[in-house]
Design brief:
elongated, about 0% strand, mainly alpha, single chain, 434 Repressor (Amino-terminal Domain)
Length: about 160
């Protein structure tokens, strides 16, 4: 295993790697000590170190890896792609409904039916919809996606850290 080497190249302590990967310090210590780790733990460590899983292993041991470890990078990428596609679809839905409402607002203003109210409703949709959407993503959708695609990570949490 090259985890210790890769961690030290970043200037990280075991505690920092544990924090960045979301894994217990004890697990990091065991893995660095040569004990077995789950595929999810290895994937989280590799993601935190920003390397493919195969880079966690010594160069001469890479050819001896089990097929499930060798394919972990591919499965991680596939899970991330599926998660990102699902998240994008929610953003597209929100934007699509907003665009339809904008055209409806223009039509109502042109026909002089509730011009002031329709503009307020459109603004309220974008503001309140954004807040409700973030709330739903954080409390409902992201946890569900975490369970559904365990090898993936929310892009929102990566961007905010």
């Amino acid at each position: 295993m090259r985890i210790t080497e890769l961690r030290r190249l970043r200037g990280w302590t075991q505690e920092r790697l544990a924090e960045e990967s979301g894994i217990a310090v004890r697990t990091i210590q065991r893995v660095e000590g040569g004990k077995d780790a789950s595929l999810e733990s290895l994937s989280s460590i590799a993601r935190a170190l920003e390397v493919p899983v195969r880079e966690l292993f010594a160069a001469d041991g890479v050819t001896l890896l089990k097929p499930d470890v060798q394919g972990l990078d591919d499965r991680t990428a596939a899970d991330q792609d599926r998660r990102d596609a699902f998240s994008r679809s929610w953003r597209y839905l929100y934007s699509g409904v907003g665009i339809v409402l904008a055209f409806l607002t223009i039509a109502l203003i042109a026909s002089r039916v509730w011009p002031g109210v329709t503009i307020l409703l459109l603004g309220a949709y974008w503001v309140v919809g954004s807040l409700v959407g973030r709330f739903l993503m954080t409390t409902v959708i992201d946890p569900w996606l975490d369970r559904r695609y365990p090898l993936s990570r929310s892009r929102r949490s990566v961007a905010s850290s």
